[in-house]
Amino acid sequence: MQVVNAAEESLVPIVLALRVALEAVGGFWVAIGFAYALMELITAHLKRQTLSFTAIRLTFSRYLSLALEFQLASDILSTSVGPSWARDRKTRRDCRHPDCVELLLGPRNP
């Protein structure tokens, strides 16, 4: 059992780092999609082709869906390592206001 606990504890920092990396990649693709869509939108206005923005919206939605996949992968990793009791206690100790604790961690079980 100690071997399993040691292996689990050694994997947690790796999984958390991977989660942050996935969130960063997702944010990166949102920014790239925004820049590309904005460039297309400005170009369409300069050319006075503003009857339909469907192509621009579809382009931006492709980037958003790609970013959403990265965010989903990050959320899956977050749930796989879940909060430990030690982190839960630390958060409850550091958070002074009871409403803040309930917002972050949910209500305490009696």
How would you sum up this structure, described in words?
With 110 residues, the chain is mainly α. The protein has one domain. The chain is built from four helices and no strands. Helix 1 packs antiparallel against helix 2. The longest helix is centred in the N-terminal third of the chain and has 45 residues.
Write the layout of secondary structure elements.
Elements: H1 2-46, H2 54-81, H3 85-94, H4 98-105
Features of this protein?
single chain; 110 residues; mainly alpha
Brief characterization of the structure:
This protein is an all-alpha fold. The chain is 83% helix and 0% strand.
In helices, the fraction of residues equals over 70%
How far apart, in Å, are the first and last alpha carbons? 29 Å
What is the oligomer described by this structure?
A: single chain
N-to-C SSE string, H for helix and E for strand: HHHH
Uncertain regions spanning at least 5 consecutive residues: none
* DSSP summary, beta strand count: 0
Radius of gyration: 21 Å
Number of domains: 1
Percent strand equals: under 5%
Major β-sheet profile = none
- Our count of helices gives 4
> What structural category do the secondary elements indicate?
mainly alpha
Described by the principal axes of the CA atoms, the overall outline is elongated
Instruction: Give the rounded overall mean pLDDT.
Output: 82
